[in-house]
Amino acid sequence: MLLAVPAPAANETPMYWRREFQGAPDRVRVVRTFAAQLLDGFPALDDVLLVLDELAVNAIRHTRSGDEGGRFTVDISKDIAGVIVYVTDQGGPKEPCLRNVAELAEGGRGLLTVDALCATWSWFGTPTSRTVRATFPRTDP
Predict the structure, then answer these.
(1) Is 105:91 a contact under the CB 8 Å cutoff?
(2) CA dist 63 → 12, 41, 56, 116 (Å)
(3) Is 51 helix (H, G, I), strand (E, B) or coil?
(4) Rounded CA gap, 89 and 108, in Å?
(5) Structural domains of the chain ordered from first start
(6) How far apart are CA 95 and CA 89, in angstroms?
(7) What is the tens place of the pLDDT at every residue in 55-96?
(8) Strand partners, 18
(9) For residue 42, how many other CB atoms are within 10 A of its CB?
(10) Are 80 and 18 in contact (CB under 8 A)?
């Protein structure tokens, strides 16, 4: 059995964007605006924006990116297959991990939200720089 794989349309050139942000809570809104303008029309845009929101908040709250003068970087890659977002922070004492729902109180739901909304997520890095990656396959016909 042969499977047909659609060829990319002429306007589906792979795109890649990167922007650095100050590690301040008011920058999270700017991250969402940045992504929303670039990915307008992407079927899972709302999910991408919520995941970027969670990852930016985590970078500010749980890493040195939230310290005075701290920064974090957002990378967005879009092609015929979908969207991949990356948030790179300045590292911190703990590794990103999913928490057990029974352990949650007021906080700690960020990565559970990420896990629920994207197809896959992962992280890599060191105590001084860490990147969290989330993928969103294109699902429209």
Answers:
(1) no
(2) 36, 32, 10, 23
(3) helix
(4) 18
(5) 15-137 (3.30.565.10)
(6) 12
(7) 999 999 999 999 999 999 999 999 999 999 999 999 988 877
(8) 75
(9) 20
(10) no
